[in-house]
Amino acid sequence: MDRRGLHLDGAERAVIFAEHRRGTSQREIARLLGRSASTICRELGRGRVAAGTAVGAGSGYCPQAGQRAYARRRLRCRPRRKLRPGGALWRFVWHHLVTFRWSPEQIAATLRSMHPDDPRARVSHETIYAMIYAQPRGGLKAALVEALRQGKHRRGRGRGIGRRPGGGSAIVPETLRILHRPEEVDARLVPGHWEGDLLKGASNRSCVGTLVERKTRFVTLAKMEGNGAAAVLEGFTRQMKHLPAFLRRSLTYDRGSEMACHPELARRLKIDIWFCDPHSPWQRGSNENTNGLLRQFLPKGADLRQFSQRDLDHIAKLMNNRPRKTLGWKTPAQALAEELEKTPTTVALGT
């Protein structure tokens, strides 16, 4: 069998040792093993030992020495890891992963845009994941895993448990059903159309209002002083009043009882409100996705009353300065700024 292109193994080195000790020529050994004579010549040189050594006595060749030389060469020929602790690339990945809580895919996409012509200065998101899960147990790995969205100590999907719909629902007039929502909202043609929800805390005793702009994915969070309709009315009014009027076109919400005061909310904000069909969270998919991402900062089982509006504004800022794949790796803040530049109205956006 022609074995050209394959590396010598331990059995072949043993044959070389025995045949060379018997005085067989290098060409004969090569024909016996299906190798080239130059391969045998190089192996004899690399595995040469001092005269009188027990294993190589009488031959000058030691198969163990040849194997060790081979192992050293293999180590040298491997490419150096890009993500080496302490390196510039490592520091960039660490900073954006742990401090800004970006995902590995967001980090990889940003590196590609920063260094389009230098593969050595960027890594794929799979490389980042591999680096995280290859870490030995300890504080370093714990910090990296905790920074991931799901916080799982190994890759793969867990077994999910379906949620059972429950609770009351707001009385929704037929005219406010999502079925009648204008086409421009569905197509995300212009900014100013929002999706909203409540992110619940431990035992549903606390909550945070979440608002996501459909076109730019810009996030606004509202502190709620309670779970009832009055608290939601005041919380959403207070936070959305910071937005310029042209960015308050519509709000799409589910049928939760906390929206019982929706006529007053529409009047205060001069905004259209549309309601999803029962048990149809995909009809406000941007908000559902954002709520999942927010659990990284507002975990399930936590008392959300401990977060001030200033804390929530900081979390929203982190979310709005993450590059998003759906935006062509622009950040929501950049996407919204571009929309503001297109609008002649010079109004500052509060956060």
TrEMBL record:
Source organism, top-level taxon: Bacteria
Pfam families: HTH_38 (PF13936), rve (PF00665)
Transmembrane intervals: none
Integrase catalytic domain span: 187-340
Keyword tags: DNA recombination, DNA-binding, Transposition
Family: Belongs to the transposase IS30 family.
Function per UniProt: Required for the transposition of the insertion element.
Identification of the protein by name: IS30 family transposase
